[in-house]
Amino acid sequence: MISPRLLVIFLLLSAPVFAQQAGGEKYALIFAIGNYPPATGWPQISSLQDVGYLRKMLLAQGFPDQHISVVADTQATINGIRNAFSALTERVHPGDIVVVHFSSHGEQVEADDDNHIDGLDECVVTINAKSPTRSTDYEKDQAEYLRGHVLGDYLRVLRAKLGRGGDLLVTMDDCHSGNGTRGLARVRGGAPPLVSAHFDPSRHHSSDSSMLSREAAVHAAGTAGHSMGTAAPAPYVVFSATRPEELDNEMRDDEMGVYMGSLTYALCKAFAGLSAATGYPSYRQLFASIQSIMNVKVQDQHPMIEGDGMDRLLFGGQFVHQQPYIVLSSVDKATRRVVLKAGKIAGIDQGAEIAICPAGTRDTAGVKPLARGKIVSATDISAIAALDGDIAIDRPVDGWAFVTRRVYSVPPVALEIRSGHGAGGAGSVSYTPAEAATIGRALQDEPGAKVVTKNPTLVLVKGPVKDTLKVSVNGFVFATIQPALSDSRDLQEKLQEYDQYIFLQTLSCQLPGVQVDMKLYLRKPDGSPDSAATAARMKGGRFEAHDGDLLTLWIRNNGTQTVYVNVLDLQPDGGINPILPNLRGNVKIGPDQLAVPAASEYVLPADDFIRIGPPYGTEVFKLFASPAEINLENLANTRGGSDPSHPPTMMEQLIRASYRGTRGGEMGSDSQPDAATFDYLFLIKPKP
Fold first, then answer.
1. What does the pLDDT look like over 277-312, one tens digit per residue?
2. First-to-final CA distance of the chain
3. CATH of the structural domain 507-685, one choice from 2.40.50, 2.70.50, 3.40.50, 1.10.3470
């Protein structure tokens, strides 16, 4: 990626956050560089694939097509990028709303001045920039990279033109450094830094963008008046695909099965998931959705948010609520069937029900459908629906499908059976190819697993006494099992448990009028939240907890009615733990104690706390909010057991059914869940 610091260093941070809504027009500038010439040494990536998804998202948000400019491939030279920014700045007016997006490779290049902590500039790799492996003339080749401070200059001038009533969102879907990647996914960057023969490696130190932000603020304070005069610039927000030390992996889109940028995918998916039920969203709320989506798709990446407008309403309050829809692939009027460009991965499985409405429908309330239908078959990325009558459209582009009854399903776990010399690692022995084939045959009728040789989710490792299932992306042990070669039942049971973890992680539901915020805080000695200490642990919009920390949990009901809350903890090793209710802890908290009235807050009792420990990595606290009392603690502890103390809610029935499902098969419900879900992601690290 381009580290967020390339923007934070050079964007002026002196502008205050204004709550007023912008009333201007909407403009977008998209840079997509993917078809790098072979002579540059940069592999081709799917940047141009991102453009269609971004355009669709922007059009849905009211950006006029004539206001969306794309600079792609051969146009994206140093001069082409500069000219595009000049044209955009000339075109916009004070109070306008602007989105700038980069999909490209990213790279670090030796700094061209002494204002850098690590001696390197983060750069966009333009179409003509040579990789370090192909560079023969440093002075000539470095000039083809778009340095961070140059991009910062362009954006600073743009912000000045937009003024304090304007709004700027910058999204960076690329990387610049890292030391590994999952499987064979394409990486947007990842080359070693481009430096001269005189570069001093001792100047290259790892730094997080939060620390560099403070350095940037000092630098900006001395130049703000000279660069911009006295006018306040537009607030800005930066979304970056990864932290500075990480790689940006591409991933497959749910609908089309094509590769695209992970941040682009999550951004478009998050916008599609926002509805009137979520309330008026802010950039921080949008980022929370992006975090949740990327944590499922690319678990080893940690997107970042920075800027001075994080708590502003999206697009200055001009966010357009679009009810999520699915594009049609084909319409067969003779057989009364349509094909949808989405399937099991998107929660559209056999038995789900849809309504076909005219393309462009923003909300189906009060709209008479062109037809209704039920899904009769589905793959991971497509589905066929049988309609209940004739449909009055001839072209797929004239209709959109809206899901009226969703069938929740989990795609099979991609399992690699590790075989070969030394494949098991220290303390293990290896499966022979014949043994691996035997285990694979035992799993042929297991719907919750798919044996693969690349890009696995779980890895089965043979041990001298027992076998081990490990999470591929981080190497954490998910389960120790009986030898799978002699008896595969334990392996099958653990695969079902991991299916359950993925199901809960991806489950997303909304209810009108239900909006809840949740945060973790370091505790003061009296048990109250320590806001100052917690703020110091925020890195790129994400809280970092350390081994041994004692935390408290804060929940606020921002909705219009009283709701009961439950919280489940989803660990990076696949473990599931109940947080609230908690009738098994030293401090008993029952489900009846978790009613939070509208506009009220809930904080853990002063004598209760959450103690942080391994495994390290990204943890997810998933909150369920319902107008009716719910109890997910019993479900988590008993793996789907019933609670005779009260009739189960629809959400409880759905989760109970998932425990008893066919390991990734249909997990449906005749009614929609009666609880909304909210995710809070944080990072657990060793104590410094």
1. 666 688 988 998 899 888 887 777 888 888 889 888
2. 26
3. 2.70.50
